[in-house]
Amino acid sequence: MTEAINPLAIANPKMSARDVKVFYGAKQAIKGVSIDVDMDHVTAFIGPSGCGKSTFLRTLNRMNDTVASARVEGMITLDGEDIYSPSMDVVQLRARVGMVFQKPNPFPKSIYENIAYGPRIHGLAHAKADLDVVVEKSLRRAGLWEEVKDRLHDSGTALSGGQQQRLCIGRAIAVEPEVILMDEPCSALDPIATAKIEELIHELRGRYAIVIVTHNMQQAARVSQRTAFFHLGDLVEYGVTSDIFTNPTQERTKDYITGRYG
Amino acid sequence: MTGPALFLLLAGLGAIAWVSARARALRLQIVARATGRRDAVHSLPGYHGWYVALWTIAPAILFLAVWANIVPGLVTQAVLADPAAQSLPMDDFYRSAILGEARSIATGAQAGAFNPLAQGLVEPYRAAINKYGVAGAVLAIVLAFAGGAYAFTRVRPDFRARTRVERLVMATLLIASLLAIVTTVGIVASLLWESFRFFSMVNPLDFLFGTKWSPQSAAMGYGNEDAFGAVPLFWGTIFIGAIIAMVVAIPLGLMSAIYLTQYAQPVVRKWMKPTLEMLAGVPTVVYGYFAALTIAPALRDFAVMIGIHGASSESALAAGLVMGVMIIPFVSSMADDSIAAVPQSMRDGSLAMGATTSETIRKVLIPAALPGVVGGVLLAVSRAIGETMIVVMAAGLAANLTLNPFASVTTVTTQIVQLLTGDQEFDSAKTLAAFALGLVLFVVTLLLNIVALRVVKKYREAYE
Lengths: 262, 464
Ligand SMILES: Nc1ncnc2c1ncn2[C@@H]1O[C@H](COP(=O)(O)OP(=O)(O)OP(=O)(O)O)[C@@H](O)[C@H]1O
Ligand SMILES: [Mg+2]
What we know:
The complex is a heterodimer of chains A (262) and B (464). The radius of gyration of chain A is 18 Å and the shape is globular. Chain A has ten helices and ten strands. Chain A has one domain (38-63, 87-257): 3-Layer(aba) Sandwich (Rossmann fold), CATH 3.40.50. Chain A has helices spanning 53-59, 90-96, 111-121, 128-141, 145-148, 161-173, 191-204, 217-223, 241-246, 251-257; strands at 15-24, 27-37, 42-46, 70-78, 81-82, 97-100, 179-183, 209-213, 226-231, 234-240. Helices cover 77% and strands 0% of the residues of chain B. Chain B is built from 16 helices and no strands. In chain B, helix 8 (231-263) runs antiparallel to helix 13 (357-386). Chain B is flat, with a radius of gyration of 32 Å. The chains are: A alpha/beta (262), B mainly alpha (464). At the A-B interface, helix 2, helix 3 and helix 6 of A face helix 12 and helix 13 of B. The site of adenosine-5'-triphosphate (ATP) has 12 residues of chain A, from helix 1. Chain A: One of its GO terms (biological process) is phosphate ion transmembrane transport.
């Protein structure tokens, strides 16, 4: 079965994908995925390595445009607007759909400059005072303010791994996105830093639509309300997280959840 | 026996030693293996072969090397002991001139003698050279046999020939690398020594801070004061190598690196990068022609046209521009490396924030790559100021202290060439000045290189 069941088709989804296929050269990495993502829930993508979670996530803010061999078919909308239509400005799109990567990747600049980077390039704040406000607000939302408020001008790369990742989240938040995509944001972090990020995701929920890719099933269960299981480029099952984990309808989902492969 | 024949013979002996030692080791090992003990056999037969061959050849060669150095002395002594030498004049100068002439005739380098005294010494010379030549050859062969025989007796199954050979290989490699270091030290020592002699004639402060350079007047006996002020040379070097050339090379090199790493299609990159790097392989003398014959006259005409005074057919600008072009591939490949070393995740991070490619380059990639680029530029400067051919051909000899790029200036390297060409005694201040200039150049280049490598290394560590 390749056609995904979509019991959660929502009346007014934040983002919605219809029959999305992604090719790297001749190789097909995503084989027709349809899914809706909404504002009120955190959506987790799970699945074995190489099944296309990152690839699909990157289609949502067109980061695949940076891969020369990648080609995307199908339709993806943000608030009903086709993001692959020629009239869509990628710069605008990425300001609205932010991304946090697997490895923390702060710029080799000060903490302040890391956060101010986005607002500057998008012209959201001009005066120094405005920028200060944005920086403080973003760092507070990223749960990092208390830890760094006295050393805003130290290098961002001098922070611990967990702090760096929260800095990257703060950097994404600073441009007031509507959707935040996170690709295994905790896989390079220790358990305590991971717990902090998970807590942060809870706090951000509702304000932003959040999609998180994770290999850690407990994490998916802890932070998300919706879970999508991918396998070999297919969306096998998508549903309420607790249902997926306790009562999967698909055999492959059950095998993966119970650890029979992956 | 002639040299080549002797070497062939030694090589032949070595080959025989190799073959027979190997065969013997093989035979012994077969026997030893039959005993069944694992440690009965240590090295492969080939190692035994090499061990014996080296023992055959190396002592003989070493002996010959030493012998070749002491023989001339022995020959001269033998000749002086000859009755024919009694009539030689006591004056050292004539004596050695006559001896030299006789030697030349004896070895066949010269056909006949001008001095009858020399003619009389030819025969004793011939005899002595012959005698010591044969003696050396015989001793070498005896040594070869002795060494070979000694080593051959040691060929036993459990003999650790491999360890010995490896140790010798290591020693050879060590000597090879030491040789390079020793040479460098020697060069520096001679530079220091000659410079020291120069500074005993000319006050170092006058040299380093004086603004008038006219070594010719010193050579003509007007005294050393005021003749060796090297500031105009330093200025010319900096003006051409560190200013004009860099104004050309830094932006162009950087931009081509950015284009190649960020914008170029893989196919374009595949062709353009080697082509650009080929520029680095053009001999500098060709750049020199280009600067002197094409660029310099064109610049002069241009300067005259727009009414600049003091435009010369040799100019700082011509040399600097062409040197800049020469340095482009250097800067661009260093910049290319540093930009490529910035992790992809940094680029992704910026693009995912909605930055455009050029914003990403300006605000993230270049700042992140900057230390590497700066290191590259420093290396380029150190190359530019040591560059000789272009400036010799295009910059001129006039030691002007000027800001006018159309005027002729001179550089440290040009003056070194100038000071050392032509007939000069080797202890005049004029000639020795070349060494002092060389020393300054050496020290500056060395410092630049050290700083540059530090910067580059530190920056590499930051991403590892
Ligand atoms: N740039 C690329 N070029 C070619 N093929 C790629 C590229 N990126 C990913 N792929 C291929 O696409 C498929 C899906 O990869 P993707 O990275 O999306 O998997 P993933 O589910 O995120 O895996 P993981 O859990 O290991 O991160 C894989 O088979 C991968 O080899
Ligand atoms: Mg992935």
